[in-house]
Amino acid sequence: MRKLVVSYLLFIHLFGFAQNESDKNEGFFNITKIGYISNTKLKQEVFIEGEGSFFSDLPSENSDAWSLQTINGYFISPTFSLGIAIGLDGYNNPNFNTLPVLLDIRAYVSDDEDAFYTFLNIGPSLRIGGENSKLRKGMVFNIGMGYKFKVANNLCLVSDLSFAHKTISLTEEWIGTSDFVIRANGVGLSLGVLF
Description:
By secondary structure, this protein is mainly beta. The chain has one helix spanning 2-15, and strands spanning 27-48, 52-58, 64-77, 80-92, 96-108, 115-126, 138-152, 155-169, 180-194.
């Protein structure tokens, strides 16, 4: 774990400040953001051997999540970027945590310092740490739009609004073979820094 943290910090140090002086969309970048997801729909799937799968809606009132995410990416063109995101999400009602590792795709309306963008995140949620881990396996899909605005040289703020979907296994198995799966849909709002 220590080697992973040191490697990550080295990567950010080497590539995180790669944006040039003009703050244009070029080269390597890092976005680190904090977000809040309000769950609007929760569905539970339970498989009982010999009887099949049973689906039920769970109450979504007071169901939410806080997330922390960092994205390291590269501008393929001034209006298109690809990146890898890693994050931590903590869900409440039902209570579970996820460690998503995602492909981040962004399309910017313009190359300006202040610009609207759309994004798509897709990828697995990993479970590490063995049997005692509180992290859950699954799949993550986020799609949304946001706004990037300059606040200082080589520093921009980003704010997004998104649809967030997670399919999570509450057992040791992957979602396709799990006996207990939760599907969570929600609306996410985040604020972060791009450098």
